[in-house]
Structure formats: C-alpha cells, structure tokens
## 1
Amino acid sequence: MRESAHIKVYGHCYPAPASLYEALLALSGEAIGAEDSNIPVVEQEGDMVRLSFEGDYFPVEDMLQCLAAHLSPQCEGKVDVLDLDAWTLVRHSIVGAEVHSAPARSLNHVLDYSGH
C-alpha cells in the first residue's frame, strides 16, 4: 500500500445485503489515492463486505450514511478510520441496523493499549 497515505479505512460488515456492497462500491469511486493499489477498496466474500483503503481522501460521512441506509437488524461489524495527519483513530461499530461512532482517540493511546 501507499507510504504517504493520509487516511486509512478498514472494516467489515456481515451479513451484508448485496445492495450494501453495490452502494459501497459506487461510493469508493469518490476515494482519492487508491488507484495505485492492487487491492480492491470494497470486496464481497459470501455475505461479508470488507473495506480496505489507504490514500488521500475517503468519503467517511457518505460511507456512514450508506451503511445506515442498507443495514438490517442482523448486521454486525466495524469500520476503523485512521487519520494519519491528525494521528487519530475513530471506530464505527455496526450493531444491528445502527452505526455507533466512538470519539476520536490518539493513535498513541491505541498503540499503548494494544501493546505495540
């Protein structure tokens, strides 16, 4: 992946309807900086949708709205957004048909907590 990425977005959701995959795939076209990657931004594996992005810009707010519009009560997962310029991580947890966003945390705190 890119050495100079400003934002990284990683996550998954399951069971994900096909409409969520299609909507996230269309939305990923607005991301900037992933075109030099050989890893797809959005992938579907069975009933799971995965996001994997490193680059200059990702439409996070639009992604959250997209998730909310396509989730069902059975869905679960998470999306982590790392802002390397601000040195923060925001975790968006998917619980049923809702997305819960935690406050931004310093990556220093996250790394300390995880033992890295």
## 2
Amino acid sequence: MGENYFGITDTGRQRTNNEDSFIAQTVSGDHFIIACVIDGVGGYAGGEIAAQLTRVAIIDQLEKLGANITDQLVAALANANERIIKEKEVNPENEKMACVVTLAMVNIEKNVCYFAHVGDTRLYLFRDGSLIKLTRDHSTVGFLEESGRLTEEAAMLHPKRNEVNKVLGYETQMRLTKDFIDTGESPFLPGDTILVCSDGLTDMVPASLIIAALTTGDDLASKGRHLIKAANEAGGKDNITVVLVHNNKSPLHHTVAKPLISLKKNNGNGAEEPKIAEQDTHPGEATVKSSGIKEINRLLLFFCIIFLSGFLWLLIKNYNADKENKKLPVSIIPVQKNQQEINLLQSIRASSGNIVQLTAGQTIVISDTVLIENDSLHIIGNGASFVRDPAYSGPAFILSPSCKYILFDSLGIRNFDIGILVLNKGLHLKNIQFKNCLLPLQFQQQLSQDTTVSGNQADTVFYHTGPLAK
C-alpha cells in the first residue's frame, strides 16, 4: 500500500530550520492511512518542538482505532494540545510555542476520508481535474478569500497572510471541543487524490499550478517533489510540506450487454457454432417486417404531430394568462423565528431599566439577525449561549448607529461567520466567549456623503488581542 501515499517536507529557501512535520503511514492493519501536516508557529522559540510533540501525540492516539473515527481525531489533537502546554510549563523559554495542523484519516476500502483541522494548513480533494478545498483557514485573510472578498492572488500577497486565529498549545485554548476543532468527512472515490499541505505551498503556488502538478502521469513521489520545487522556485519563503494519498482502486464499469446468441449444430463434426437469434427467420419474413415497421412509423409521426399541436396551444394559453396576471404582487415568505428568538426580541424592545436577564445555561438558536437599536442596553447572559441555525449565514447581532452604550455580559456566541456587527462605537464586552466564529467582531464606520474627515481611528481593547503571527 506504500505506493498509495507519500509525504515530503523541505526547509525552503529563506528559513534556516524546518518547523514543519508530517505523518504518512498506515495504521490498523493497513486498513487506514494517516495523512497529516503540522506547521510549528514561526517567529516563536519552540515551534519545531510543538510540531514534533503533536506528531507523536497523534500517532499514539491513532495506533488503535475505535468505532468513531472523528471523535478519535479530535481526541488526538486535544492530546497534542495538552502535551504542548505541559512542555511549556517545564521549559518556560518555549512558553509561546504552538502549531497548526490538518489531520486526515483515509479508508480506501470504504472510499471515505475523515479529517480534523486547526489553523491554516489545508486539505484538498483532487477529482476529475478539479481541486476542492475541504478545510477552511482559521485566519482573517483566509476568511476574506473564501468569502470572495479577496482573490487568490490578493490573498497570497496580503501582509497579514500568515496571521492565524486558532492554534494548538496556546494558553487560552486549553479546553478544546468540536466547536474549536473543525471536523468532517468526504467520499474518497477510486481515482481520487487528497493533498494535505502547509501554507509554505499555498502561499507560493496558485491552485492552477497545483492542479497541473497533480494531473501529470507521474507517481505520487514525483508529484510531491514537483510541488516542493514549484514553491521554492516561487521564492520558498517558508517551510514546505506535502502529503499525498491516492485511491488507486479501479473505477467500476458497467458491462455492455451482448446480442442474444443461439447455438446450432454443425453438420460436419457435431460442434456448435454461434448464431445471432435475430437472423434465425423464415424466408420472406424480412419484407413483411419491414412493411409493418413503416406503418408503425407513420402512426408515430401522426401522434407526434397531434401532441406537438396540443403543446403549442398550451404554451399560447399560458402566455396570455401570464400577461393578465403579471401585475399580481409576489409573496415573500418571512423567516420563521423560533420562540426563544421572539422572547429575546420582545425583552430587548421592552427592557425595563435597559437590562435584559437571560436564563442561566440557556441556549438560544439564532435563525435571523438580532438588530439592536436601543440607546443603551445591558444583556446579562448568566452563561447562556447564542448558536447559529444551520440554515442562517449572517451576523448574530447588529448594533445600529443609534446605539450609544450596549454591554454584553457573561455569554457565548458560537458558529457564526460574524458574531457582532458594530455600526458605531457603543459596544462593550465582559466575559464573552466566541467559539468557531470566523469573524467574532466586525466594525463598520458610517459617514454621511461628502464628509471631510481628519485624524486617526481611536484604538479600543478589541484590537489589543490580535491574531498570532506565524
């Protein structure tokens, strides 16, 4: 099975040490293949150590597989996180070391790939000439690229390209859950290839060149070396790591049905020779059959003309009906809010003393943006959480320009693309936990038309806890 997978890492042309690590090996009696890329956070001492600790922790955790593969992948990353933290306690000189990781577990027999992911290393699926990104970058630039606000070229050149929002081993992230670690699974069909790589490849090589490398008829080792070479030729600014896995099972093909064959004795030696059954007819039958077919064709043509005439009549009738009804208003189905949302909105609008108290531990599912227009408001969460409805993709809260003082106190906001969209400077936070939010806070300054502005934007506490630089 060794020809099914390949891993390679390279220091690059501008680094003196390699903080990347990878796993490309089989487990569980060669039924599964681990494909993993780990990138130690650069700029801090110990990034290489964090990557190696993570590698060992993952192999130890996945040596024996249980029934739920996804849970075991999450446990492997949580175990790696704890090992990094313990190492930092023993060696304070490495107190800021961390890493990002993409871990895939492939079962070729069952044509499936499971994965767990933290950071900006990536997992791609290559199928029929198309490169599909299965993971999403935990970074602001990655979010802007994935949402279409930045092109691939602009994202590759962005000055904050290497800043990430999630890592393993950072002090404030000791309790990892599925909300923190992205997980998923994908069909992995015969002929498919997966690519796991560090940002040393994707920051240097565009998707078009990656596709070109994977499309070659070379083996996996040659394709991996070609990708490394392409990244180095583009500048090699970072360590480069690539792991490839190919499902080399033959695609299933349907058998073409053969014509019916009858067997007829040979007069000479008794051997049987094949004869097509349709040819075994009596003399003179061919002319009769041909004449009958012509009659059937005439009938079919007659019925087709009748059907076509009726179809054209219906089209004309419907067109006239549409002209008569074209001015009728179109009904719009409003978003159906759940009772928790309705109660929350009523409490906000009719708040007594500008205070809204939530039930301790309560979970409120948000299916539409909660717009706050109060002059002042204090929302006391008591540990409650706001969770995104899977069908909704907007912000959890929007603070209108009329808000002067809005305080969110002791609550959680989970799984939103944007947690809170602020259109003024009235937001205040106290003990707020954002989980799995691509952009926890977004500030938008609104100015009237033809406004002349001087000065600089005042700093706030929200800008002091910025992302980690790799």
## 3
Amino acid sequence: MPDEHKEDSQEINHYEFSGIEERHGKIPKWLGFVYVVMLIWMVYYLVRFWTDKG
C-alpha cells in the first residue's frame, strides 16, 4: 500500500506542446521562510508608508 501512494505522488504530467513536466512536490523550508519574511515586510511597508499621517 505505501508503494502505491509513493507512485501516485511521483506521477509526472508532461505537456507535449511546451515540453513542460509537472509533478507534486513539497515547498522547501527556505522558500517558505522567504514567503513569511516577504509577507511581514509587506504589512510593515503598508502600515509605515501607506497610512494617513494627517
């Protein structure tokens, strides 16, 4: 049973016209960290520079 699940998760879809291959995968931890940092930076920037200071 675990082998069947492993094969399903490694299934590769191939798009003939563009030559792109697609498979399911995990997001690397460093990339998740970058997303979180960018989200925090976006909130800070919006609050700091786009709020009405009047």
